[in-house]
Amino acid sequence: MKLNCEVMGDLLPLYAEGLTTPATNALVEEHLADCPDCRAALEDMKQAPPPLPEDTLPLRQVRSTLKIRRRASVLLAAALVLVIALTVLAHLTKPVYLGYQGNADTLVQVEELADGRYCVTFDDSVTGYRLETVETEAGKNLALVMIWYTPLDRLLGKSLQGIDGRGLLLDADTDYFYLVTPLGGDAAYYPVETWEGAIPEGPVSFAGLMPRLALNYYALIAAAAAAVLGVFWLLLRKKRAGKVFRTLFWLPVAYMLAHLCIMGTDGRTYQMQWDFALILLTAGAIYAALLAVWTLLPKRRGQSETPQSATPKKHFGKAHRWGAPLLAAALTLSALLAGFSWLTRPIYLSDTDLVTVTANEDSNLVAVSFASQVTGYREITTFELVEEAEDPERDIYEENVGLLLWYTPLGRLLRQQTGEPLFYADRIFLYHPTYGDQLIWKKDTVRLRSGSYMATEATDLTPGLLTGLAAAVVLLGLWAALQKYRAGKVFFWLFELTACFLLSFLCVTGGRFTTFTPARDITFVVLLTVSLFAALVVAGTLRRTQK
């Protein structure tokens, strides 16, 4: 059987691709041996692949465009969430400095101890301080203290520790103590307490602890770089180099926007490294958001035209336009909450060598100092009746102080340190949730006793976990029984919500169900549960739309 050239025209593409049977191959090869035209056509097919049909090209362009826009939307949502989170963190941890405004005596008080040292106590509104010691040309020793609070400390109820559990100690050779406050573009020093000579009136001029102004200069450099790169971008916008300058142009713009988010219009700082690190992180997120926005902007006419027949359905476009960014935002927020909860989770310490106790022989006042590994502590003071008198006001009590020490990964990163608290105590215990109480100091005149009642301050979260597990089992059973009805969807959503709660509970607590910070843990669990549940709902919507 011989084939004519018309039939060969239909078989040659299949033969060139190797899609024909051996019998057909034999017939084709027999015809090719006698037909030079068909041999030439076969050689052309092997050298150049056949062009795709014109109607398939727009579909591929639409698919590629949708893929790029989907990724840009996800990147934009994640970047915006990160920018908002960093900005909120920066403002929550930004010190609000407290200065001399006629109320210095209420903010700071100084008391001379029996050993010649001085104890400085702070008001509860003060949550942080910085101490600098300076020796003047006249040989006078100055103690310069800057005090502040942060909104985050106020929310967490944090306060400095001093007399009766609050304060810091100054050496006996300190001559003057000054409260430092940022005033205008300088730092003014107001005398709060002196021990030699009269108290000067008004601020004292002294070139000492000054704010850093480098961030303002960095912002000016970024503005100049943005202006130069913008000019080059406009001049070379029609050439390939224009794309490079356009990409570089967004870098200084992102830095300036990050500077405004973190520092506002005032670039003075007393914590240069922390603020600069936050600005760089925020600038990176803003830069990614700017690139994503530029990608999502509609192009000019003629650059990319999509046939109406190849446009996705309306509901499909909406699902991917809003669903993907919402999913990325929910997952990013969940990761940030989980990471921040782990960075701020206390890790309790049990080594008694981390505590040094210095007793004052003339009073019950005891100074406690901690090693650098300790970034936080909590104390509880209990009174134990030793001798009961006929007059209840003359009863003799002994004071037991229990200390709970910890560190947090974030505290280690920030090199956070505790002060030297003072206590009126007869015994001091170190408590650990696993090992219990350890006596680290007692007066020689008191009896040896055990127990500081610190364990009574712990909150057991196990009932919440068991309740969540029981609810998950019940809701799963109801969903299995009613999955064919509309009520089944409701029970399934409730089951997902309960599963998110259990996952958040384990993530925040780390399997440790006894806590001394229940408000913190419950807040993180609730926020993480809502974020994970939102991610599950959006993911389910996208999955159903794709089907």
* Helicity, as a percent range: 40-55%
Number of helices: 14
Biggest pleated sheet: 5 strands, mixed
Q: Give average pLDDT, whole number.
A: 76
Radius of gyration: 36 Å
**Unreliable runs, pLDDT <50, ≥5 residues?**
162-166, 183-208, 301-316
Q: Give the percentage of residues in beta strands.
A: 15-25%
Could you give the distance between the termini?
50 Å
Q: What is the general shape?
A: elongated
The number of distinct β-strands equals 18
The multimeric state of the shown protein is: single chain
Structural class of the secondary structure composition? alpha+beta
Written description of the protein model:
With 547 residues, the protein is α+β, with helices and mostly antiparallel strands. 48% of the residues lie in helices and 20% in strands. The protein contains 14 helices and 18 strands. The chain has helices spanning 5-16, 22-34, 36-47, 57-92, 104-107, 151-156, 214-235, 240-263, 272-296, 314-343, 409-413, 462-481, 486-509, 518-546, and strands at 96-98, 108-112, 118-122, 128-135, 141-149, 168-170, 176-183, 186-194, 347-348, 355-359, 365-370, 376-387, 396-407, 422-424, 427-432, 436-442, 459-460, 514-515. Strands 1, 4, 5, 7 and 8 form a five-stranded mixed beta sheet that branches. Strands 9, 12, 13, 15 and 16 form a five-stranded mixed beta sheet that branches. Strand 4 and strand 5 (141-149) form a beta hairpin. The chain is elongated and about 130 Å long. Residues 162-166, 183-208 and 301-316 have low confidence and may be disordered.
